[in-house]
Fold this protein.
Amino acid sequence: MSKLPKEHKFIDFSDYGRPIAKVIANSLKNTSFTPIHITIGFIISGLFAIYCIIQSYYWLAAFFLIFKSILDAADGELARVKEKPSYTGRYLDSVADIILNALFFISIWYVSNSTIWICLLAFLGMQLQGTLYNYYYVILRNKFEGDTTSRVFENKTPIALKGELQKDVNILFGLYKLFYGVFDKTIYALDRNADKGEVFPNWFMTSVSIFGLGFQLLIIAVMLVLGLKAIILPFFLFYTVMVFVFIGIRKLFF
């Protein structure tokens, strides 16, 4: 099942791994592999990236960051081709992402001259950026019923779907709210009427996709390879200004 109808699909700069992700998903369609297995795979890839950053193996770190992004797309693709969406997979994916993101930034802080406060603020900025992108993207997907497990407002624990345990959904949703609640509330406070406006045009969503996690990790990978580790954290801190730019554009035009 596609996330969006054809006429509303946009160029997603964060989704460069989708073609390979589809190949992986289709190759595993008739196997016992599940989306959870793929999620575990991207967690392992992320941990390898962290080790490589700490050891100054920046080319390898870049590889594992990009591979992590590909697998991050592949778990959802596998859920779609097997027609087995799950809240367990949806929230495990998100919880794993934010923990890995924190570890990525801590490892970059460890090998650079940035202060711990810049590290913390850059991490918060990165998460706010990603939350804005996801907020707008989920609104768009929900307008066309392009997704069944992502909701514009994550306020209540969802009912487990067929094949998953309610206990698992409860635990992972609780962790999701713990880690993402403040970012969701912040973005909602800044743009609470986004879901009531017009359908976002493709060019706008393409622009906002620079906040997608895949593109964020690509930026980190490129900077590491280019020897720019010292400016990664300051970059993401100042990059957060674009959150207010995109919200301003949305309010003015859509």
User: Anything to note?
Assistant: The CA atoms of residues 143 and 199 lie 8 Å apart. The chain has one domain: 6-253.
